[in-house]
Amino acid sequence: MSAQPHRFYKLSPGGNTTILIMDAQDLPVAEHPVLAARLMDTLHLGAEQVGFVSLEGPLPRLDMMGGEFCGNAARCLGAVLALEGRLGDEGLICVSGVEASLGVRLRRENGMVCAAVQMPVREQGSCLTDLASGVALAELDGITHLLLDEDEHPCPSDPIRASARLRELYGLTQRDAVGCIWHSGDPSSPSIRPVVWVRGTGTTHLETGCGSGTMALTQLLAKQQGGPVTVRVQQPSGQHIEASVQYDPQSDRFSEGWIDGPVPVIAKGTTYL
To answer: Global pTM?
Structure first.
């Protein structure tokens, strides 16, 4: 395993603490899960997730710790590219779990970078299915989410254990990454409580924010309301992520999914393993 120093950023999009290891093109993908587990440890940098960035290809590339997709980490990469002067108001990036490149849009508000990223929503409405009353399955490229309406399925006292049971119950244990997203509140201003499991690292986090879970809920709302939706979703951190998606009920198709919001930088520097 590499003992070389690496540049890093630690960011907090929606409260979802994320470490990006920069110039990571020489780190074998097979080492990512072990390196990520060390970096996420509270005795090291501490975070909910880790991504590895390569800047050598035709487009900047982000590989998540277990090969999954992560919308908040993608927003982090956009923010870092803007801070380093590598990207202007908009551009394209590549992210693990998704074959196509994704658009990013950048702006500054009150001295902070705000980043929007295009989400890999699947076009067919069948990507969103009802499994039981108050339980829906939303499939994005690179991650799958169970959406649980808290009116019918209150978030339990031990959501991590409950999420493991739900993955078993619905046959999701072989997916790259699975979130259990308990949601509540008025559809115009909902809130979520996400638990995300990544198979490659064997890690489960009661996350303080979840971009793809926010997108999954937005798709559910769009289908329930029969049209496009833009909504600010409160995260467990108390912060919000804005999400939008186009939905055509006639053809039962989704398109143009985006999440957006500030991406604060917590720390940057050099890390040693």
So the answer is: 0.93
Q: Do residue 247 and residue 132 come from a single domain?
A: yes
Q: pLDDT band for position 3 (50/70/90)?
A: low
pLDDT score at 4: 82
Domain co-membership, 107 together with 131: no
Q: What is the CATH number of the domain that holds 206?
A: 3.10.310.10
Domain co-membership, 213 together with 150: yes
138-172: per-residue pLDDT in tens? 999 999 999 999 999 999 999 999 999 999 999 99
In which domain, by residue range, is 163 found? 125-255
**Is 1 part of any domain?**
no
Instruction: Please check whether residue 104 lies inside any domain of the structure.
Output: yes
Q: How many domains does the chain have?
A: 2
Distance separating alpha carbons of residues 218 and 157, to the nearest angstrom: 25
